[in-house]
Specification:
The complex is a heterotrimer of chains A (341), B (505) and C (338). Chain A is mainly alpha-helical. Chain A contains 15 helices and 2 strands. Chain A has a single domain, classed as ABC transporter involved in vitamin B12 uptake, BtuC. A two-stranded antiparallel ribbon of chain A has the order 1-2. In chain A, helix 2 crosses helix 13, helix 3 runs antiparallel to helix 4 and helix 3 crosses helix 12. Chain B is an alpha/beta fold and 505 residues long. Chain B has 2 domains: 224 residues, P-loop containing nucleotide triphosphate hydrolases (Rossmann fold, 3-Layer(aba) Sandwich); 182 residues, 3-Layer(aba) Sandwich (Rossmann fold). The longest helix of chain B is centred in the middle third of the chain and has 21 residues. Chain C folds into 2 domains: 177 residues, 3-Layer(aba) Sandwich (Rossmann fold); 134 residues, Rossmann fold, CATH 3.40.50. In chain C, the strands form 2 sheets. Chain C has a 6-stranded parallel beta sheet with strand order 2-1-3-4-5-11, with helices on both faces. A 6-stranded mixed beta sheet of chain C has the order 7-6-8-9-10-12, sandwiched between helices. Classes of the chains: A mainly alpha (341), B alpha/beta (505), C alpha/beta (338). At the A-B interface, helix 10, helix 11 and helix 15 of A face helix 2 and helix 5 of B.
Chain lengths: 341, 505, 338
């Protein structure tokens, strides 16, 4: 109930934002802006949906930006140094992401590290690893060599859906990037995983009350590791989309992406208190942030002001989350009082 | 199946942590349809026994049998599968998830690919509700339900397992009287269906109300087993606390009452009110008396005393201390007026769990240990040793972290922390919730000693035994109003019960 | 081939007569101003205003000076809106800003790409939409309208020569370098190494370590190098900040005057240090002028005097530079210092 309500509120806020910029920002309500939003923020949405899982089990994953960099560099090396074909690279990239994520989970579960500390450590470690395996430094000349493997660059393909169904004759339709459809597929898969499977329920239970989950026989450790692995896989998917878009990988690829992803997830109603959230919210949250940044840029608002505004929105979202938690507690108290009378 | 064959049986169970034997040589049985009380002071070994039976703890020795079959040890899931369920003292529900999801936590029926079969789940749950005559909205988040309903969800969770034994650890801890009755009805219904129940409680009334048999533990051992019908209260208390303490406890009941103490009015409240919470509250609190405020949970006693201390503000009325109007806006000004306050939730509001006993005791009196800008460790340690001695905190070790103390000893530290300031007025909110009988008697003794030294003491309590034991005067609150005050010697428990219930239509 | 050559010649002409640039550009744009609302220049891209923006790598003295130079040329032309955007040291931010500017209908984008390859698809996309891209200092692998660069390679060669001269043709030197993976790092490093080989084979480069463009970091790095090579005779900082860090170390160790330090870029602080007799020298480029040059080219492109799609090949404009030392630093005027 509550989830559905906040989803509706978020969607409404998204619509209001779009309407506001359509009126106030020149050239916002155009097909190309929509296209930019889809191609520039689909991978952010994927990162945010991945980030939702660690938050659902009451943790956080600060290392996803570094995983993006690491996976990006692995793809770079495999393709340009070892000439591995793309159809082999794709599954290897996902595997690398899953392992990097699972390692976070293992550190948290078996070494009992705080998620914040564990993933902060792996953030540094993965980024350092990225520099040390960088083909850009190991092999001179690769700095100016784009990746041309069609399996990878093919991710950056656009589809003229409007043209193919004839809608373009009526309005100017954006071309849809493949990354957007990948995002939709990830969304569908994760949403089903979260809402309809036993694993999804176990995840919510683990985040909602880990002790209860443990006593109910849920393998809390395995669930936690899996949640971080999902986050890692999503980071790998995002890395592939970015590498396809840039036709290369840099050592700094994805740095700072964790903050955007966490912001999008929280704005999307994933409670930092754990156990509450959906996949819909983070995805919308990511596109909301994207729309705001693009809109403000089109309005000519300086970037530091944009960062302040993003911060304020995040603060509002965290505050709202906190309010919901408090309200839940208060309701509990008044309910107990009511029963007392 | 032979009705007398135990459904659950532990043989020779023992558990040692390092050198400490938490449980020794315990034989324990539950039969189908039996409600067995398990009682004992804190630290008597009840929790360890329960944890062994649920598989949460691996015993050092002994075996557990379920319906004559050896059960695996230290395997929570294995015990659940064999029909042993536990309802823990602290809620073991995921508050944001629906009732339905909570009932089937960790074991939802699934179809291919791990997809939850929601249809089947709902059908089974509705069937369960119908069979056990429980009415609850399956789709509401558990966190939005009243506490008693949450307990019902936990029971449903156990029933959904086809539990043959349900262990209930202080199931009524935070429930109001009407809800306790409701829960007991459920327990009786379960018993009628042949479910074996282990019922852990500190409240003797409940044990005599609902249990068939009783197992009494002390110092990690089972000291007695009996039919409830064949034992009386003083015996139970004596067995629980040992002979020495039992003497003190019964002696306490015979103590002299001092209504209005020295006759000097310390605190005078006139027509206090807080919009939508309480109103029209007037009373006098005298030096050298213990004034107990009682009433149901939700009758706003806690809210009232919080405003007296300054944690909250009242909207109307006047408050005088020592005959002068007192404007108490914050806990600091409350303390400046000589008020000490022991809150109900000692974990959240009263103690620094990860600091040691000495540090906690010194917390409210730091000024006294100042040497220039620094604090004197030696002075704190001396004061601590003296307080530990007076309060009989066990173990008598000032360096021990408060987290590691039992509930009763934590409470003694908390009371001692405020007594260290020699408060002129001491307010205690539910001072003995979750405290065992022995520690209770000691806390009462501490309060009486403070009273003897001239403090005015205001105690909020839901426990009528406690009120009748410790109070000099009794105030009854119903729905935010102080409906009656009595001299404790001049009123019966029955009359108080009637007045407490007076507000309920 | 023909139109390309024309283009090159035209832009090169502008590069040579730097004083004429502002005037020429103003001349081109004066016309539309006077004819009230109608663009006088061939109306292939008739619009009321021109939007231009510079996407920098991250805040630093060099892009700031470019932006100032660009503004000097564009501001007086009232039909041009110009803004400075920050890439925040992230490829994805630069790409996203490129997308936004293209959909906004910008006519020219000045770009200091973080990565030559990563920005190439965006540049290609901009070209398809008829947006001209002028890169500053770091070239992209996708051909585009123009590339205006400090002369990294040959400049560094000349630095090597001057440095070797100052050291008397023998000794040991260290390079305080930028993080790897950046083209200009490679160009400057290669130029320096080749230059030493060609002019002063007696000088040995004993260390090449990363100091992250940063003065403080350079101090630490040089101290470490000095511990291993106490007889080190000089250091080359791949930018001025790192060179000034080396000067700090020399000062602290009382090596001033004996220890030869060269920088690169020629920012004001470096020039002042040379005048004070601390820094031996640097490669000075008039970065304002570099910005003005880019802006002048942009003006021509925007107003349609030349069409962006006419570029089969991009033009590459190398800035003139000066190896500034104590002898000639006085010739750099106050208005040329950034």
């Amino acid at each position: 109930m509550k989830i559905r309500f906040s989803s509706a509120a978020l969607l409404l806020f998204f619509a209001v934002t779009l309407a506001f910029f359509s009126v106030s920002a020149p050239r916002f309500a155009t097909a190309s802006t929509v296209e930019n939003l889809m191609s520039g923020y689909a991978f952010v949405a994927i990162l945010a949906m991945g980030q939702a899982w660690p938050i659902l089990v009451r943790g956080i994953d600060l290392s996803i930006g570094a995983i993006v960099g690491l996976v990006g560099m692995i793809v770079f090396d495999l393709s340009l140094i070892f000439s591995v074909p793309g159809y082999v690279i794709l599954p290897l990239a996902l595997l690398a992401g899953a392992l990097a994520g699972a390692l976070n989970g293992v550190l948290i579960v078996y070494l009992h590290l705080q998620p914040f500390i564990a993933t902060l450590a792996t953030l540094a470690a993965y980024r350092g690893l990225t520099y040390s395996i960088s083909g850009r430094q190991l092999v001179p000349g690769l700095t100016t060599t784009p990746i041309r493997d069609p399996w990878i660059t093919g991710i950056e393909t656009y589809f003229d859906l409007g043209g193919s169904i004839g809608l373009s004759r009526l309005i100017n339709m954006p071309w849809f990037p493949l990354s957007f459809f990948i995002m939709l597929a990830v969304f569908a898969l994760l949403q089903v995983l979260l809402l309809a499977t036993r694993f999804g329920r176990d995840t919510c239970a683990t985040g909602g009350n880990a002790e209860a989950a443990r006593l109910a026989g849920i393998r809390v450790g395995a669930v936690t590791i899996a949640a971080y692995a999902i986050s890692g896989i999503c980071a790998a998917i995002a890395a592939l989309i970015m590498v396809a878009r840039f036709t290369t990988a840099t050592e700094a690829l994805g740095s700072g992406a964790e903050l955007t992803a966490i912001a999008a997830a929280v704005i999307g109603g994933v409670s930092l208190a754990g156990g509450v959230g959906s996949m819909f919210g983070p995805a919308i949250g990511a596109f909301l942030l994207g729309a705001i940044l693009i809109g403000l840029t089109l309005q000519g608002v300086p970037q530091f002001v944009q960062q302040i505004i993003t911060g304020v929105i995040l603060l509002a979202a965290v505050g709202y989350d906190r309010l919901l938690v408090l309200r839940r507690q208060r309701k509990l108290e008044t309910a107990a009082t009511g029963a007392g009378r | 199946m032979n009705a007398d064959a135990p459904v659950l049986r532990g043989v020779g169970l023992g558990k040692t942590y390092g050198n400490l034997a938490a449980l020794a040589d315990a034989d324990f049985t539950v039969r189908p349809g039996e409600v067995r009380a398990l009682i004992g002071s804190n630290g008597a070994g009840k929790s360890t026994l329960i944890k062994i039976l649920t598989g949460a703890v691996l015993p050092t020795r002994g075996t557990v049998e379920i319906e004559g079959q050896a059960a695996p040890l230290g395997d929570p899931l294995g015990m659940i599968r064999r029909g042993v369920a536990c309802i823990y003292q602290h809620s073991n529900l995921a508050p944001a998830m629906s009732v339905l999801d909570n009932i089937y936590l960790g074991r939802q029926p699934t179809r291919a690919l791990g997809i939850v079969d929601t249809g089947r789940q709902r059908r089974e749950a509705l069937d369960l509700l119908a069979r056990h005559d429980i009415d609850i909205d399956l789709d509401r988040p558990v966190g939005s339900l009243p506490t008693v309903k949450q307990k019902e969800v936990e029971i449903l969770k156990a029933l959904a397992l086809d539990a043959r034994v349900i262990l209930m650890d202080e199931p009524t801890g935070w429930l109001a009287a009407a809800d306790v009755a409701r829960l007991h009805a459920t327990v009786r219904a379960l018993k009628a269906r042949g479910v074996g129940i282990v019922y852990i409680s500190h409240v003797l009334d409940e044990i005599f109300a609902v249990c068939d048999t009783v197992t009494i533990m002390r110092d990690g051992r089972i000291v007695a087993e009996s039919d409830v019908a064949a034992i009386d209260r003083p015996t139970v208390v004596r067995l629980m606390v040992g002979d020495k303490l039992a003497g003190e406890a019964s002696g306490a009941a015979l103590q002299q009452r001092h209504p209005r103490g020295t006759g000097v009015v310390r605190m005078s409240a006139r027509d206090l009110g807080k919009r939508g919470v309480f109103g029209g509250v007037s009373f006098d609190l005298h030096a050298g008396e213990i004034f107990c405020l009682t009433g149901l949970i939700g009758s706003k006693r806690t809210e009232l005393v919080r405003t007296l201390f300054g944690s909250d503000r009242f909207d109307t009325g006047t408050l005088e201390i020592d005959g002068r109007p007192a404007d108490i806006r914050s806990p600091q000004s409350g303390m400046a007026h000589g008020i000490g306050f022991v809150p109900e939730d000692r974990h959240r509001e009263g103690l620094m769990l990860d600091m040691n006993v000495t540090e906690n005791l010194a917390m409210a009196t730091l000024d006294r240990h100042r040497r220039g800008p620094l604090l004197s460790r030696g002075s704190m340690a001396r004061a601590g040793r003296q307080a530990i001695d007076e309060l009989s905190v066990r173990p008598p070790d000032g360096g021990k972290l408060v987290r590691l103390l039992s509930g009763g000893n934590q409470q003694k530290v908390l009371v001692g922390k405020w007594l260290g300031r020699n408060p002129r007025i001491l307010i205690l909110d539910e001072p003995t919730v979750g405290v065992d009988v022995g520690a209770k008697a000691e806390i009462y003794a501490i309060l009486r000693r403070a009273r003897g030294e001239g403090a005015a003491i205001l105690v909020v309590s839901s426990d009528l035994e406690e009120v009748m034991t410790v109070a000099d005067r009794i105030g009854v609150m119903v729905s935010g109003r102080l409906v009656a005050t009595h001299d404790a010697g001049a009123v019966t428990q029955e009359q108080i019960v009637r007045e407490i219930g007076g507000g309920t239509a | 081939m023909k139109p390309t050559n024309d283009r090159r010649d035209f832009l090169k002409a502008m590069a040579l007569g730097s004083a004429a640039v502002a005037g020429a550009a103003a001349g081109v744009l004066a016309a539309p101003g006077r004819e009230a609302g109608v663009i006088g220049v061939p109306a292939a891209r008739a619009q009321d205003r021109y939007k231009m923006a510079f996407i920098q790598w991250q805040p630093h003295t060099v892009p700031a000076a470019w932006s100032k130079g660009i503004e000097e040329v564009l501001k007086p032309q009232q039909v041009i809106d110009y803004e400075l955007l920050d890439g925040q040291n992230k490829v994805e931010v630069q790409v996203s800003l490129m997308d936004t500017l293209v959909s906004q209908g910008a006519s020219v984008i000045f770009l200091q790409p973080i990565d030559s390859v990563a920005l190439a698809p965006s540049i290609a996309k901009a070209k398809r939409s008829g947006v001209s891209v002028i890169t500053l200092n770091i070239d992209a692998t996708e051909p585009h309208a123009a590339h205006v660069e400090m002369n990294h390679y040959y400049g560094a060669m000349d630095i090597a020569k001057a440095m070797g001269d100052a050291m008397g043709g023998k000794g040991k030197v260290a390079i305080l370098n930028a993080p790897p993976g950046i083209i200009i790092r490679d160009q400057r490093t290669n130029g320096f190494v080749e230059g030493m080989k060609a002019h002063h084979p007696g000088i040995e480069i004993v260390a090449d370590q990363v100091a992250d463009w940063d003065r403080k970091k350079a101090q630490d790095v040089l101290n470490t190098i000095l511990a291993a090579h106490p007889d080190l005779g000089g250091a080359y900082g791949v930018n001025d900040s790192m060179a000034l860090g080396a000067v700090d170390v020399a000062k602290e160790k009382g090596l001033l005057g004996k220890f030869v330090v060269f920088g690169n870029d020629g920012e004001t602080a470096a020039l002042e240090s040379i005048e004070a007799g601390e820094l031996t020298g640097t490669q000075y480029t008039d970065v304002y002028q570099q910005g003005r040059l880019a802006a002048a080219a942009a003006t021509v492109l925007a107003t349609g005097a030349v069409n962006a799609s006419a570029f089969g090949q991009q033009s590459r404009l190398l800035m003139p530079y000066l190896i500034a030392t104590k002898d000639n630093v006085g010739t750099i005027q106050a208005s040329q210092r950034w």
